[in-house]
Amino acid sequence: MEDKGYLTPKQEKVLRFIRKRVGEGLPPTIREIGQEMGFKSTGTVRDYLKALIQKGLVKRMNNKSRAIELAEGAAVFNKIPIIGTINAGKPNLAYEEIQGYVDADDLFLGRLGFNDVFALRVKGDSMIDAGILEGDVAVIKKRPDAQNNDIVAALLDNNEVTLKRLRSKSGRFYLEAANVNYPPIFEEFKVIGRLITVIRKY
Amino acid sequence: MEDKGYLTPKQEKVLRFIRKRVGEGLPPTIREIGQEMGFKSTGTVRDYLKALIQKGLVKRMNNKSRAIELAEGAAVFNKIPIIGTINAGKPNLAYEEIQGYVDADDLFLGRLGFNDVFALRVKGDSMIDAGILEGDVAVIKKRPDAQNNDIVAALLDNNEVTLKRLRSKSGRFYLEAANVNYPPIFEEFKVIGRLITVIRKY
DNA sequence: TTATATACCACACATTTGTGTGGTATGTCA
DNA sequence: TGACATACCACACAAATGTGTGGTATATAA
Predict the structure, then answer these.
(1) What's the mean pLDDT in A83-104?
(2) Which among A23, A128, B49, B140 could disulfide-bond with A77, CB atoms 3.0 to 4.6 Å apart, if both were Cys?
(3) A10 Cα to chain B: minimum distance (Å)
(4) A71 close to B (CB below 8 A)
(5) Which nucleotides of chain D have an atom under 7 angstroms from any protein CB?
(6) Across all strands, nucleotide nearest A28 (CA–C1')
(7) Pair A147, A175 in one domain
(8) Domain that residue B53 falls in
(9) pLDDT at position B44, please?
């Protein structure tokens, strides 16, 4: 199960094909894989699938057509390359040095359930020193284990929501803006969720 | 084809089920749809599919199992609710006032092709005043129509990449950091792409 | 009344698809 | 040499799945 080990070139090619097809919305049949790979026997494809299952990259359901699922680590659709780390301070990285790939979905939400997640569009500048600007989308995970120093969405007494950093001083929690022009909030509040992602589109 | 018109409640339910299954990676068979809907005949399901195809919401390939595709406008997986606008300045919005939904994929990349897009992880603090922090993922669209004031990924003479704001002064382009501690860059450079999205995970 | 449309069911049939058994050829290890 | 693994092929069979024809019941319009 955990023996991901090395994949042979052909095993990799099979996996890539499965990924592509799953990404397109229609997993391949055994014969379709065989055709893609140039195999003339369904048995051969099954051997490859067995190997991929063995290595924990793929799951299957029996007696169901196209029922091929990418296992945890292999579910990488919507891949975009990460071409290294850009240095926003002093440039220091060569171009086109692809470090790997990220799954767009993964990058966005990770493997959270979508049920506990919602998004808010940020208005105002009270979190500007934390790099959160007006217009950004703040993705919040509900009922989380929010801790001191986390940025949280909080419900205030007047039934309004605000995004602030959760702080505690001498045992008491309060909300702190990331902007010196805004005073801390000491009134009653309830933490709705914790900020897990910020997305900004230009 | 364009007669989306209204869907009957059952047609909507069928469409929802297809969406769900496609989102899960395995489109349903005709019989699976029938079972979900309580239909006892495959013919009934085919009538419904025909209606959905007629209305331009679904596409199919013949003689292929599970070959149901969501047409353009219907492909909305990964929906997360937007519960209004959060005010990071002064709280002013009621909780649970769902404004609508966004498609996670859409939020992330919009409807761009993935081919011209890549990501960089930001290092350093030269763009901090633009709300771009160390560790953020910068999504770049290649060979774009970069204009003055756009934030761009630029290739410098020494073959290194940097993220800066593109500026022009008296007809000449240069790169400007968003941090007073960094001087503008006047040396030779080539714009690789334009910053379209910033993602930060906490 | 007839005609037409909607909303289903029954069921036979063809095709697609998955399963299972067994085979050949090649190479490696002992 | 024998034992074993890898990498394939052939092919029969069963199960899943899509297709096609025709039926019933209900409502609506002409």
Answers:
(1) 37
(2) A23
(3) 24
(4) no
(5) 6-12, 15-22
(6) C17
(7) yes
(8) 9-74
(9) 93
